[in-house]
Amino acid sequence: MTDTYHAAALDSIVRAAIHPAIGIARLGNSQRPDGYFIGPETTGPTAIDAQSMRDQNGAIKRQAARFRVYGYNAAGEVVAELTAENATIKWNVHLANRKAQWYAFVLALDVPAARDLQVPLRNPQVLGEQREQLAIDPGPRSISGFEQQGEQYHFDSGQFLGTPVPLGELRTDEAGRLLVLGGFGRSGSPQGTPIFDPANPSTFANAPGWHDDTADGPVTATVSINGSELQVEGAWVVCAQPNYSPNTLSWRTMYDLLFDTYVQYGWLQAPEQVSFRKHVLPVLLRMSGLQWVNKGFAAMFGSGGPFDFNDPALLGKLAAVPDSETQDAYGQLRRTVYNAFRASDNPVYDPRTWPWIYGDTFGEEVPSPTDMLSASGVRDQMLARWVAGDFVDDWDRKLPSHLPFDKVKVSEQPAMLDQAALDHCVADAFHPGIEMSWPMRNLSLYSAPWRIKHDDGEAGEPDYGPHLSQAQVLSPTGPLNGQRPGGISRWMALPWQVDAAGCRSGYDHQYDPYLPTFWPARVPNQVLTEEDYRVAIDSNQPREERLAAFNRRAHWDRNLAGDTFADKAQCMAEHFGDIGIVGERPGVPDDPELPALMQVETRNAALTRTPRLRAAVSTGNPALDRSLREAGWESLEHYRQALSRFRH
Predict the structure, then answer these.
(1) What pTM was estimated for this model as a whole?
(2) What are φ and ψ of residue 169, in 5° steps?
(3) Per-residue pLDDT for 34 more than 60?
């Protein structure tokens, strides 16, 4: 009976689609065949222990992006997942890296401040056909069947100026689903040029003569059921940098950004009903989640803090729907919290309002409202309805229980995959970003919600000239309209390590050494160390010492050697696999100030081989030394170089 029904269901399938629509793979330096793990597939994945992200040698495992095919009937309903067991599937993927061949990053080109900007090419001295040598393009690879892997599926034939640069590989799992693994985090310069030239700040994010092994490209498939081929909606994969705090979500995720963008332009509808659990709670919880990666957030939103949004008592008040227009016990509390957030139409630069996260234009000569992040208009409207009492209290006061993926209804799995991948990507400050940059918020990039528009490549990409302008980028025939392999990652920093080492907190160390910040959810600022964690959970220690240890935070990048920004960035490129990963550990149950679960930095034992800092901060001014040291700067020169990179 089951087989008959299954066969009948498959007969109703008229088309197929690949999910997630945008998959995220991540780099790692593990060389072991089993040195990978599969990225998040549910919006509430099981918390990750940092040690599980390393292999037995301490190297960081690569994160694989897993893609699935789903069959849809004529009514647009999900019928079934199609695997190698019930369909014939041939996967096709084309990865490329075009960073060195593309234009420099200076500023997000869709903001008003970029109206008159003329962005130069990277490596402009390489001319004509020789520029093709700057693109790492190994061509497409195809794979099919159960548990397939091997050298024939490796993207290992691409070169940068004659130097081979592998970009990853394809595999299939036990059901024939696609696994895309990215590169090993190898960045460098065949000519030995520096990663950053302090005399030329424009080299930040645009290191001349450098390559990295991030990549992106289309994911397509040919699918047939009983010999009948289906039309298949393709996907995209982005191979990005490692995730150093896998259990932390950014305050604004890439999923949030895209959803709000589609609503703004009419592709999707705003929710008819505001849900506290879906639309308000994430905005609050993520503020408290950032306590594990930034000391300023820990002081305000951490365990025992004045706005600990993990506190059930506080959440119970914020989730309470008014009994009537005249009976609203917690209306003013909601309003107070809402007013603390930066308005979506914020008219001034103000780092004091929430969230304490930089925006796209931070560092420009003239302060701007976009120097700080604010909620989108769509998100702001939902929060305003919450403040007015127009929402549903659907918050479960028990700890949330997240279903494993195989327990999620088949009809809900495609949307779950789409969201899970993008929820673990940041969309805070596009300067230029972590996984993807500012082009992602432009509608011309998409063929449908979540689907990046593929360019068949037959005509080739136009020559935009020695400089790229906002008018060119935003024109209907510009580079955002249809993507070729490498089209997404080319807007990112080159190499990615320079941005990871450079975008942090403490730029105005006299105002606050920890706030505002860039994207600590992926690149932590300050962390709870293993040593302090052990003191905090030790009931035999005096309570004052336990609390002091818990509230103490160490600078995450403290083991990147050197006392200048250039030194730090070079060390990051060479030792990115040794830096600490923040993962979940058991804490202290039933304690108002020490949480039951903690996020703790775990470092590779190989850090003992990493060169140590050369000297303490010493400017001759004790107050300045203390301020710089507290903010995590290794020297005045380190601070000045880091600031200089914002100038253009």
Answers:
(1) 0.96
(2) -160, 165
(3) yes
